[in-house]
Amino acid sequence: MAHCSAKLDEVSRNCILEEAIRREERNMRLNTEFTVSDPRKMPILPEKPNYTTPASQPTEQQLQAAHDKLVSLTNLKHVEQSPTQVHQLPPTSNMEYGFFSSKQLVSAS
């Protein structure tokens, strides 16, 4: 058909295409009914893993207690200090380089 389409002009090719589309549409039927054969066998999807139900608003005391607990459990109390002020000895082998140096490499800003 490819060698024939070169011989046909644009209008003839459009008529052939239109006739093919009409034949396809004649056999098409829209299915408007949907039934489940056995509802007990229908797959049920679980909830999303990150789905949460909205909780009530915490009070100011609850927020402060949670903040205090978070600060006590983390190392946020040492954020402003240099590693030499926090640790007596370097905790990792990479920290050995420059750990005992007296001059500061980066100025505090």
Q: Helices, strands, pairings?
A:
Blueprint: H1 2-7, H2 10-27, H3 60-73, H4 83-86
Task: Give the structure's gist in a few sentences.
The chain is built from four helices and no strands.
Oligomer: single chain
> How many strand elements?
0
Beginning-to-end CA distance, first to last residue = 77 Å
Based on CA atoms alone, the radius of gyration comes out at 37 Å
Main sheet characteristics: none
Helix/strand-derived class? Answer: mainly alpha
Strand content: under 5%
Number of helices, where a helix is a run of at least 4 consecutive DSSP H or I residues:
4
Folded structure, characterized:
- By secondary structure, this protein is an all-alpha fold.
- Helices cover 39% and strands 0% of the residues.
- The model has no long low-confidence stretch (mean pLDDT 81).
Features:
4 helices, 109 residues, elongated, mainly alpha, single chain
